[in-house]
Amino acid sequence: MHYIITQERNDVPAGFRNLTDEEIAKDFLKLDIDKSYFISKNEWMANFIPLLFSDMAALEKEAPDAIMGKIQELSDEFDKYDLDNNKFIDYIEYKNFLADNIYISEE
Question: Are 87 and 41 in contact (CB under 8 A)?
């Protein structure tokens, strides 16, 4: 399975599709660690920081402290999705972003 994140529909290759409502809901609930139906920045970071370590070689090539920039990017990404700036991402905020910007391929 492959993902593309883009705001330009022209950049989406053939064979990719939008996520279904069911896929978005399942993903949201996975990120919502405390099952409050909101994703806090702590939950967001706890879910995504471990993924940064999956390609340590690329991080090391980039810079010895590249992870700090990646952590800041994750924090900024959360702030971008939190449209009402209440420090939580609700399901509607999450769904709107994913429905418009994430494409998936089964290949």
Answer: yes
Q: Is the pLDDT of residue 6 over 70?
A: no
Kindly state the average pLDDT of the residues 12-26: 85
Are the C-beta atoms of residues 27 and 98 closer than 8 Å to each other?
Answer: yes
Nearest partner of 13 among 80, 106, 103, judged by Cα: 103
pLDDT at 3: 61
Residues 88 and 29: their CA atoms lie apart, in Å, by 14
Q: 82: alpha, beta or left, given left = phi > 0 and alpha = psi -120 to 50?
A: beta
Closest C-alpha among 49, 48, 50, 28 to residue 39: 28
pTM over 0.90: no
Structure tokens at 98: 């994913």
Three-state DSSP class for residue 104: strand
